[in-house]
């Protein structure tokens, strides 16, 4: 049993003795409540019902209404409150898009504030804007265009924005009925390296533990992850973890203020005096995580801080890893990581002394050219102590979007079938038998490859469900040119986005979608901890012509393939869940989810429980990893991306309420600023061979030699050709020069 949190107030954990942290920089969550009330004042009862009955469409924490399965109390955060208006706002007038000359000048936030997409609309090449059309006309144009092309020239991308399991499943089935595996979703861009690393090492492809394991474990480690910003409800878990005696450690290039201390609004003690979270920060270079973790493991081996019994009986390849580490010098590991041998010793001692530990990571680990091996370096460290498959232990690639975990598991992926099965002739044959039509046997185009194909005029039809390629991918000018070259683009969304306004090569069609709360029969999402949760339909304001995306894809497929019409028909979302349960065995139980509060956690509380690993040999696999050193030319800095007050690429405020940094901030260490004779607020220019970006100096507790800049603004400096080798995600980091402007 894990230790229970003490209920007594603990002054030693307080962030400040000043009541309510007066004068400190942190989010005013109470103001966010009043802001949400004012913003949704025209539909307050509906907004309340969404919060009280729906499953959160923000991060992948997973709630039922405002409750979860980890701690008691109300769970609602500023991320969810900011997204609330997208569900309640009325439609805008179609007249607004009849000429887009002025609209194109609007920022993305201003486009969202116009309101919901009202109806199907079309724009042809040479026309100054969009005109209204019927659903029948829109679907006829699309279904007439697809057959005159080739299946491999069709691309479909779904974002994770509120997207649900039923939509993912129906969309990928429809696309495969059309003869291609060219379907992808946001899960790839975020955590596909995690999936690849976990699958190869442990035989599973998802978080191995539960959020409950954070509270009372001996050691909770965050690597390249800032949950205070991206999954803010989890700060409540961190508070109770501290109260249960858990030691919290962060490995990052920046000493994130929100991971150091936070005022948790729903806990009186923390709301008054705040809570100090991380007891230790280990600052490393951008891309230095693997070297730091290798050095940590090397220290653990030298001091025999290992679980030898677990290693000998339940793992393979440890001796090869030890041999590899023996050949990696301390000087090399220090140089690449940017951390000292003493730092690695200190962290190794913490890991060695812990009897239980949970490792959490995010895109600071995955979005690198070496993302897959970054993940494997974390797994290696966890395996050295058997920190998997038991209470208080686990490996958690934490998700930032509510629908993303189920995306790949539903098969809405260019490189796997439903259930995460690889695309092979054998698996295609089995799926063909289940569905009653031939399933393609070749892997499809990933999201990044779709844009490349579009640029090379090898894509005839591109569907984008939500999201915005112009904002999420490197080199936006290249992306825009690629979009301009697609003969037919179909954008399905609830609001207007800048990518919709890109000039058509021939035709652009806009289709209005429903939100998850509007879908008849209710839907499900899968949270970070593998919890499949039912979200009911909630009566309220409706956009008359909006339709669920799952219906749209299946109708298009039926029109293109009328001979398969009976095999591409679901009367209700309940029927979709029935089929999911049959096609994806790990989701057995989803067919029974029918009411608010219904849920189950596939795989149980812990995957690999009892150290049973579903690998071919039944053992966990260590990975031999050799970190590579990046040459940094004189005058250059490592540059990485960060989020501020935003959800995905949706910027919500110009100032980050946690750090105080504005959108143009260039986070730089005090040492580097002094060396360059820069002071707070000075204008600077970041440059490399791809582009340049103006900003202002923001002195922060950074690792010297490293900079951080807000995403997506920084995309102009990122190289579209830098991608991870196994799963093909962009590297969201760069080398840049910094000049005073």
What report would you give on this structure?
The protein is α/β, with parallel strands linked by helices. It is 32% helix and 16% strand. The chain is built from 26 helices and 29 strands. The strands form 8 sheets. Strands 2-1-17-16-15-3-4 form a 7-stranded mixed sheet, sandwiched between helices. A 6-stranded mixed β-barrel has the order 22-28-25-27-26-29. α5 (135-145) crosses α24, α12 runs antiparallel to α15 and α12 runs parallel beside α18. Residues 638-734 form the Molybdopterin dinucleotide-binding domain. One of its GO terms (molecular function) is molybdenum ion binding. Residues 116-558 form the Molybdopterin oxidoreductase domain. Pfam families: Molybdopterin, Molydop_binding. Keywords: Iron, Iron-sulfur, Metal-binding.
Topology:
Blueprint: H1 29-39, H2 44-53, H3 78-88, H4 108-113, E1 121-124, E2 131-132, H5 135-145, E3 154-158, H6 165-177, E4 183-185, H7 186-202, E5 219-223, H8 227-230, H9 234-243, E6 247-252, H10 257-260, E7 261-262, H11 268-273, E8 275-276, E9 280-283, H12 289-302, H13 308-314, E10 315-316, H14 318-326, H15 330-337, H16 341-353, E11 357-361, H17 363-366, H18 371-383, E12 394-397, H19 404-409, E13 416-417, E14 421-422, H20 425-435, H21 447-455, E15 461-465, H22 469-472, H23 476-484, E16 488-493, E17 507-512, E18 523-526, E19 531-535, H24 549-560, H25 573-583, E20 599-601, E21 620-621, E22 636-642, E23 646-647, E24 650-651, E25 665-668, H26 670-675, E26 683-687, E27 692-699, E28 706-710, E29 733-740
Parallel strand pairs: 3-4, 3-15, 5-6, 5-11, 6-9, 10-21, 11-12, 15-16, 16-17, 22-28, 25-27
Antiparallel strand pairs: 1-2, 1-17, 7-8, 13-14, 18-19, 19-20, 22-29, 23-24, 25-28, 26-27, 26-29
Helix pairs in contact: 1-3, 2-3, 5-24, 6-24, 7-18, 12-15, 12-16, 12-18, 21-23
